[in-house]
Amino acid sequence: MVKLDNNQLVPTIIQNATTNDVITLAYMSPESFELTLNNKQVWFFSRSRSELWHKGETSGNFFNVESIHQDCDSDTILIKVHPTGPGCHTGNETCFTKELTDLPEFTSTTQHGTILEQIFTTIEDRKLNPKKDSYTSHLFTSGIEQISKKVIEEAGESAIAATKKDKDSLIYEVADLFFHTLVLIAALNLNPTNIWEELEKRKN
Fold this sequence. Notes:
Elements: E1 10-16, E2 22-28, H1 30-39, E3 43-46, E4 51-54, E5 63-70, E6 77-83, H2 115-128, H3 135-142, H4 144-163, H5 167-187, H6 192-200
Parallel strand pairs: 1-6
Antiparallel strand pairs: 1-2, 3-4, 5-6
């Protein structure tokens, strides 16, 4: 028996079966666990998108299962895998690359705090799996120059709204600016993590 949390999910640790490095921690639902057992490749449940997620489906970096264990309290799963590529979306072998030597600043991970990552996940999906009626897919088809023009356009409209002290318009235009900037980042095969790391350098 495996105990589920309040969201009917179970935290799952992914470990490299060859190196013993811990690759990541994600969540599984009963459905994703069944798919993992049947396909011998790891499936997760994405909390941000509220849907099943076949690890490697878009990136090609699959987790091939060697063994599955549960802990002594039956509320955590450990899966040892043979990855076919980098385990982290940043291109690193593991998600745990930042060593903590001092007490960090703790922040609450709320839906609003992760909304950019959620949107970026959808943007990347539209890039890799274009949809006919998707505006995002159309942007990628139009090319870097056109996407860049949209970023400039939305930056200008944000500035105009601020100059007019139109708060409602400013919120709308900045949201547009953020969205198109994320598309531009994805078009150049970057991701928000690269931006967060640069901002970390500027905190002082």
